[in-house]
Description:
A: Rossmann fold, Alpha-Beta Plaits, B: mainly alpha, elongated
Amino acid sequence: MIILNKVQKVFKADHTTITAVNQVDLSIKKGEIFGIIGYSGAGKSTLIRMLNLLERPTSGTVMIDGQDLTKISQKELRLARQEIGMVFQHFNLLWSRTVFENIAFSLEIAGVKKAKIQERVTELIELVGLTGKEHAYPNQLSGGQKQRVGIARALANNPRVLLCDEATSALDPQTTDEILDLLVQINKKYQLTLVLITHEMHVIHKICHRVAIMESGNIVEQGEVLDIFSSPKHPVTKRFVKQLAREDNSLKVARHLAQEFPDGKVVLLKFLKEKAEQPFITNVIRNFKVEINIIQGKILHTQEGGYGDLYIHLTGSEINAALNYLTQEGVEIEVIS
Amino acid sequence: MILSLLPHVNWERMLSATIETLYMTLIAAFFSFILGLLLGLILFLTSPGQLLENKWIHRLFSAFVNIFRSIPFVILIILLLDFTKLLMGTMLGPNAALPALIIGSAPFYGRLVEIAFREIDKGVIEASLSMGASIGTIIRKVLIPESLPALISGITVTTISLVGYTAMAGVIGAGGLGNLAYLEGFQRHRFDIVVVATIIILFIVFVIQWIGDFWSHQIDKR
Lengths: 337, 222
């Protein structure tokens, strides 16, 4: 359990002060994947660095499992950091060490015995799928492989928390998905708390349980990923959601169709969780005298279930009855025309 | 045949002068390496944004390094005469040259070390901190291994400039090939001695450069 209480970071530079993170309160539950999303300069990078005190907060407290990191000595902080793994955008591996030695590095820091290091590193290499690459140097690896080394290294000391600083931002989409799958696998296997920052909505919707949206040092909105996706409130959140939904475009198409088919109705159906997996359209066509023309649709899957948007064009004599049925079933309806 | 072109060369003396030059160069290079590494570490760690950031210590050491790097070596030897006498008990011979050689080249190498450390990706240091590494661990396991190729090419350059310094020290009485070339070659108009001493010095420089390049490439896995 991570609790941030009124955490603030102010940078002073040549007579100007910049508040990178402004009075942030946040609590992250054990075992969840918590995402922080924001555009560059929103303060998310500074925020995640305050979770292991790579940046010391100007004020406020950072509690991890009941220990206030801002109040402990340097030595205690080093021990606490061994239990907080961190993965970086640019991997930050030591080029002078092989894959094996890079992973061993964090165990060496923790003072683990040599024989035990051998055993643990072998285990980790298998976990992240790098068997056979033990003796390769980082410059012989692809980006995805380098990040796997980074993850293995961060997990070596069985941390309580894994911090991911834009861990997939330097990777191509295919590799990004592979790394995200690995992170989910690790989260499930070890009940490990994951905190990640990103500017890609894709990452949030694919693996996070909860999300916080940051803008100019403040958390402007937070909650369950599904809720945030289905009803974003803050303008910045809406912009991020559009990254995935491309709502603008669909609306335009729907309006255009509404003009082309003046009879009937164009509606937007919104499905949530298990509703995204039921055959509503079939039921409507079977039970009501309507024809349905599907204009555009999309279902996205998150850790908490799916949610979908479907634009349809309805004609026939029982349009209203059909829409009533859908409303009763809990489908959200928005009539476009 | 070739030997007849070099009537004045006494090969035995040439050999002992070569050994003296090598002795001065290698001993001074060794101490310059140790002291330069320390100076470079202090310069790097106390610089702005680094682990032991300290403006005043950084300025102090930076000024020290700049001063000793700027004094022409021949003048440095003269300035250090009393110090050398105190330390080594003599002003003549290869050992007497060592203090000036080391003080002249350690600050130079210190700067090269600082530059080498600066080339290390800051993210790697940050990652080590995130794993809970102490400063000692970071020095031993990150800074030095990650900058080793640059540290080696730096000591190669420093050693080569030391060969030149020993020749200058030789003129003032430290022995070695410089001393031989100047006293027996130049002053007595026996230019064959100057030529042979020069060729040997060139050969030493080439060998040092070759070893340095080879070693530095060998360990560079980037």
